[in-house]
Amino acid sequence: xxxxxxxxxxxxxxxxxxxxxxxxxxxxxxxxxxxxxxxxxxxxxxxxxxxxxxxxxxxxxxxxxxxxxxxxxxxxxxxxxxxxxxxxxxxxxxxxxxxxxx
Length: 102
Prior knowledge:
Elements: E1 2-6, E2 23-27, E3 56-63, E4 74-82, E5 87-96
Parallel strand pairs: 2-3
Antiparallel strand pairs: 1-3, 2-4, 4-5
């Protein structure tokens, strides 16, 4: 899964703090709360580049909800956050199917 990061400002965004591209995603429960693991692991992700006004870049979402492969097929709400900047994406939809290779 991926989300787009867009610079909606009129000025260039400069990464002066060394922020990284780590994005975590969580399946939401029936109350709209993220199903989060007790511990989040961070690997060394690349630094965010400076971003010109109107530019966008695609960022990979690391789904942090554990055992998602054991969830039954269906539609799930998914939230994502660009960790270093604390930017949250509006909830999206994750569709799990019962597809098996034979």
